[in-house]
Specification:
homotetramer; 7-stranded mixed beta sheet; 14 strands; alpha/beta; 5-stranded antiparallel beta sheet; about 350 residues; 14 helices
């Protein structure tokens, strides 16, 4: 069976695993108050050029997002997210379980637009605000759930609309490295720190066993976040496991190297499929691609490759998702292309 | 510096780490729906003699406890716990953050008594129940936060009072293996499944990188627990990391071997201190011991050993906590005793 | 100033106020456990032909809706509502504050359609349900927030889709009496009890000082609702104030008489405006109507009549809302028509 | 049957009811944004000498308390309350349902002491604060649940401990008027505004149909409280019903007159019982008294007087509670004394 179902199907990059092994028997302070977490945080602050930021390491993405909601929002405040956003769809109402509404706005290619934000906020500022939630935190993902990326101008425009409307900008970077290494990207790490109030850099989907680094730039959002992490069950007892992994991931820019590999495999696959005449649900420059097949072809594909179904596109066709990772061997891509070629005949 | 601060200061037992390494590059299904989680669950059901139980693997203890509260309780229902219980004191109000009150009862040596439960419930059944929370889930820990253990008769008595009063019995087994291997223990693994509606078996404090296994015996509590786990941020993307670790931990009863080692070191330390004339805050047969020193001695100890302060016992004396783990070298115990001997002079 | 802003601008019908005065000094049991609440509940069970229902009296609509969410839903379950629904828009995230997501579906004339429900539920049943909320309770209003009404066939179709999909049907009847007395209505009170799992009958917008009667038909939803009411702050100490008012409102079908009056005034106004050539945003047979004026006309109207702005319909026109109540004097309608006639010239 | 069960068994003082009747048919703006609420708020700010306070009118006490918790506390912050406090015992976990823990401290005569607060806070400031809730808001009641009152020195001492420890002081004044008119009281209305960050003045238990006035003195606590009121279901559509009642209650100091009457009846009863040799569970100068009878006598009393059972005091005796109200006729007190005299023989 070929695996193109997601980018969290393998463990950790060997250098990450090695680092964990190195410290395994050294007694270390718990709960993230150790030297490895400190060093990793320092390295992240350097890479993202935000020396005064607070960095917290958490185990997973949903946990990070719900912690942000609980920590950053007052009870009457709401998130805004693309209707395709992870917090809208695939977190079992985790944000709502913290008491906060997620206001969905129509996404364009998985991305939030300033116009959609402005319209949503206007609808909530009609003179009877106390009868409606107060949209307060704009949630965006880069790369998005559809594999697309924001260019700098787009993220700047969202920052501008946030400033205009008094919103916080929070970026889910579960696949940030994939975005940064994608063709067409013009954002640099420091731009996220410049433009966002807070963001997280994903490790789970980029060569760690697990781990997301929450970077809080806006001073107002910093106090008591560790209390919220603990209260919401996100404080890892052996917190240094996160620090050690992030240290290894950011040493010699491994995080970009791993993401670049994943992108290259996906783009090779994409080009190969195009050459075979396959159409796509959406154009994506990152490690998730969305080819369209006939339902009959989809059934045949299922027999030798694991992947996700995305949507029916018409009565006889469906879009599926192929995802590559830092660990996807190039020969698997070649083999998949060959196999699909046979299916398409 | 000697480390006796807690039992989660080291990584994983080498056999656990090896197992993780073995599967590292094998593509595996996410979210705990993999073969390793299945095998580990099967093994636990065998060890605890509860073939029909549901087993879920979570990353940490607070997360497991809050998931249980959210999944098992109706909005108007409350937990009962010893006033020294972890959920009462050291989880930053995690249970309350799910909307549920924790009713504290006075603990005897860290343990809940049937009398205390009966009294608490009686106070909540006065004919105006709808104005009070409904105590519903009794939370106990074994071993307790004070290192003590329940004997079978005591746990049976709590089960009986739960049956009598319509309560659920939930056991926090963060240190269950320490209890099972302690001198004086007469409980067997299957007793927990027989007597509890649900319980969890701790891995974080017993030789895993992280991981707790929530075992649900009562059929009524089984549905939709995975949804709650996801909603509360507890679903690990690379869920097999938990399955693989528990497989290794329960192979050849490693879990008892590691706990036995920890207990032996603590008891050796305890005996050595007694021989030096040191008194104890409480008698504990497990891997946590609570000697009393003068405040002056405590200050001296701090210079070469890491440990936790517990309580002032009088104007000039304090109780502290020494904890050993599966990884505590016996020579460290010897060295600590020698060093304390010098301090006491 | 003429008042057409809402149907809760006046106090109570004189017969209701008289009833309150009659019992004012009689010592009465608190919290709704009195004879008046019992008698009113009995009367409602008779009118709605549901002798086994539970009836609870609450002060307001948002309170009733959030109590229903908290009492009827498990943590992982969600509401479904029209995107124009009160719970979606105008309750400051009250449902989310109980931890539950509200899934919005596109409304047709303020009404939910079976197709929209089926589509929404299908999107949440894709084989990875635990990553999404479980839509469980369908919320509908009759009359709707746009003054429209469900006919029996429509409500039956929603019941059928609920049965098909395992959903609960909950009806917000803040303006149920307006619906029942509207032209075109073919629903009878007993139909609500037949077709819904629970519903509430509004008093605040129909001649009471305050008060909504929550009727629970489905046995599974009955236990412990009073506990939730208390916990959510909805239990009125002098609960008999609600019982006495509902007794008076349902004596000699006063509730329908008051609603009929309101509808007649709105429809007279509607016809008068039509005769003047005014177009409408939506056709409504109840006590809320939505005429369209030029923005210039709107400004002129504001000087002598209180009303709500609804929406811009194009660059120069806006829809507004006129609402009549049980207390609207017919001469006010006549006067408003005369005044508008002058504005339109 | 004689009624001494509580002080909310009758409707409203005739002058209050008359005021409601006077405005009954006058169209009035909803949600508390009307002239009556404004005038009542102004009057309260005058009486309590806090011209810059925000005043919100809510329907009931539990609702007011849970709104305060939701509005004033961050997710990681907790309330402190006497173990006999209403929020601890009789609100069905309403505070916990907003996500906040209530830390109980031992009460002395129903009152919180600075020592107890200091001890509780010290236990939560041990260097690992993020693992514990942060006690933040001290909840006290005056008069207390046991009918006792704070003298000025005591309330000042609590203010001082709050300042010392960075706590907010919130006073539940459901029976504030009873406290202010009690023998031994030396607090004046303005003292509450001087010493508390926020407090509420009760109407439900003092001659209104319903209604509590939340007075927020501390500027930091003022923003967005109306949003929380709406979100928690506490915003009354016909909000002027609250304003009109409070206007009437504070006209010519009716609120003190009604409370004084209640106190006088209770104290007359208390003296009469003392003269008959009856002992008391606690000494109370307000409208709640707590005589002790033999269980046999209690059974006899039940036949002709309604009252609450409080506690067994020994094997054969129980404490009960008699409560008087603004509406208790003096002859009922006389008749009760006569009847008890017969029972005691």
């Amino acid at each position: 069976m070929l695996h193109f179902q997601n980018d969290y199907s393998e463990g950790a990059h060997p250098r990450v695993l090695e680092a964990l092994k190195d410290v395994n028997l050294t007694p270390t302070t718990g709960y993230g108050c150790d030297e490895h977490c400190k060093a990793a945080a320092d390295r992240l602050k350097e890479v993202f050029a935000c020396p005064d930021a607070d960095v917290h390491f958490l185990v997973g993405g949903t946990q990070t997002n719900l912690t942000a909601a609980a920590a950053f929002l007052h009870p009457w405040e709401a998130m805004i997210a693309a209707d395709t956003g992870h917090v809208c769809v695939h977190e079992t109402g985790a944000i709502e379980a913290t008491g906060h509404k997620v206001c969905a706005v129509p996404a364009v290619n998985g991305k939030v637009t300033p116009e959609a934000v402005r319209k949503l906020v206007a609808e909530h500022r009609t003179g009877v605000e106390e009868h409606m939630v107060l949209p307060r935190l704009l949630y965006v993902s880069d790369s998005t759930e559809l594999g697309t990326i924001y260019v700098k101008k787009e993220l700047e425009a969202l920052r501008a609309v946030c400033d205009e409307l008094g919103l916080l900008l929070y970026l889910d970077g579960a696949r940030m490295a994939a975005a940064l290494t994608a063709e067409g990207n013009d954002l640099k790490p420091e731009d996220f720190a410049q433009l966002c109030d807070a963001f997280y850099v994903g490790g789970t989907k980029n060569a760690l066993l697990f781990g997301e680094a929450l970077v809080i730039v806006n001073d107002d959002l910093k106090p008591f976040v560790r209390n919220v992490i603990k209260q919401r069950g996100g404080m890892l007892a052996k917190g240094w496991l996160l620090g050690v992994q992030f240290e290894a991931l950011f040493r010699d820019d491994l995080w970009l190297e791993t993401a670049e590999h994943a992108n290259e495999q996906a783009q090779k696959l994409s080009k190969g499929l195009s050459d075979l005449g396959v159409k796509f649900y959406i154009d994506s420059p990152t490690n998730q691609i969305f080819p369209i097949f006939t339902d009959e072809q989809v059934e045949k594909l299922k027999k030798f490759v694991a992947f996700d179904f995305i949507a029916k596109v018409d009565d006889t066709h469906s879009a599926v998702r192929f995802v590559t990772s830092w660990a996807t061997p190039e020969e698997n891509v070649d083999f998949l292309l060959l196999a699909i070629q046979r299916v398409l005949k």
